[in-house]
Amino acid sequence: MKKLKAFVAAALALTLLVGCSGGSSDAGSNGSTLVIAKENGIESVDLLKASTGMDFEVVNAFCEGLTGIDKDNKVYNALAADYKVNEDETVYTFTLKDAKWSNGDPVTANDFVYSWRRTAQKGEDYQYFFTDDMACIKNGNDVTAGKKKPEELGIKAIDEKTLEITLSKPTPYFLSLLAFPTSFPMNEKFVTGLEKDGKKYGDQSDMANCVLACGPFVLTNFVQDSIIEFKKNENYYDADKIKLDGIKMNIVKNVSTSALDFDSGNCDITKINSSLVDKYKDGKTFNSMLEGYLWFLQYNIGSKGNKYLKNANIRKAISYAVDRQDLVDNVLKDGSVAARGFMPTSFAYDQDGKDYCDTAAKYMSTDLAKAQELFDKGLKELGVSSINLRLLYEKTDPANPAAEFIQSQLAKLKGLSIEMTGVDQKNSRTQKQTDRDFDITLTRWGPDYADPTTYLTLMTKGHYFNYGDFDNSKYDAKIKAINSETDKAKRWKLCQEAEAILFEDDQYPVVPLFQTGGAILIGENIEGLEVHTFGTPYIYKNVVKK
Q1: Distance of CA 480 to CAs 185, 325, 339, 367, Å?
Q2: What pLDDT does 6 receive?
Q3: Cα(233)–Cα(301) distance, rounded to whole angstroms?
Q4: Which of 132, 424, 478, 543 is the most interior residue, by most CB within 10 Å?
């Protein structure tokens, strides 16, 4: 993201300026506290471990980075007052605002240095943020691999209010990543003080006393899988613009229960699932938006993979057998759209403002006759008359109804039986994927930044999300070429060429299915909720409760 300069590839941020007729039509007993129902709690707010959309949503409520993305898809300066960049766009020098932490300490350049070095050295899922797979921070590859010291990472404090960041190469989407929570600062004195007292940052047994805010709200109460509460941060540099007194997130596993809470005026915002869409879709409080998550099947085709799935015709047959349009129109019904390829729509844009999906080929289509022809050919090549495959999925929305639909679709292929392996929690699915304990997994990826590479790099050899162990040297070489190309038009073409390799006749390591929609009920007195297709899904700082 660029300061207030043009930013190519801005994400779709849908600002919902709606009032609500269901739910509480007046301010109700909650006053100016926004009450939100959430299906899932958090895993961690420590930047070493935070990895889910809900984690980032909570972190973004009480913390900020150098930049942010507003309701109009424009990048703005958050904790950065200004910045300058050298001629080859590899060195960025930021001047910080006179911002404070919620304990009164000033936000300093060292807070960013400390946070980045800490995560680069010890981070879990998002340690790779600093590598050439993402932010391209100088020495990021070697620091995260333990080959260089954290002090050699390309970030340093010039003085208390001046921060210098050096990249390994020009990175078109770099400034957008500075709005991503992994890049946020941490107060070293506060974190190390907790450790001296035998506590950890973000300790869930005493969360309110184990986090520090530099964002619009302060976390005041936390009960795992029950409630998360915030109050307005009076030390926030932009506190005058925050209209809410606070936020209350209730963790409600059953959306039918949260919908009833909404109807009775006890909740301002709740998502609903496909089973409730028909009930609410004609009401004023019903909203449907497009989110950035792309759901797809990933085949286990590596050394620990399924021998039948090593046959490309079997993999292609499964892709052709699934009617994606039927899935989104008649099963999900929440604004989801059928996938065209390995990229969501309304997400990444070229230098002329064109959607990536409108400039790339369409790879996904449904043709049951062709699917059976390919499947029969695959069976013959394998020397068998039938095969059994395990489908791993998570028993939550939208994965559960999507998996059941996929099973019904694949049942139409003669000679194929699908064994359903449903797990209750995301961690169980992730662990099975990590252990390669699956044949096919229904999984998803939420983009971290608004550029095609956030998806394309997933299929490179050795990438932690490449659970199927796809290995194609031509593909990896194309990704390497993308990462070194500075001409924007040429780079865009290379992205399209890389995606095309995934769907060559002898490849198909993944089967893109749908881009997630969001069916959500929002009270008529609520304005200013922002929904973004990458990074933090929901932003609350500009919400007004009338």
Answers
A1: 30, 34, 25, 34
A2: 28
A3: 50
A4: 543
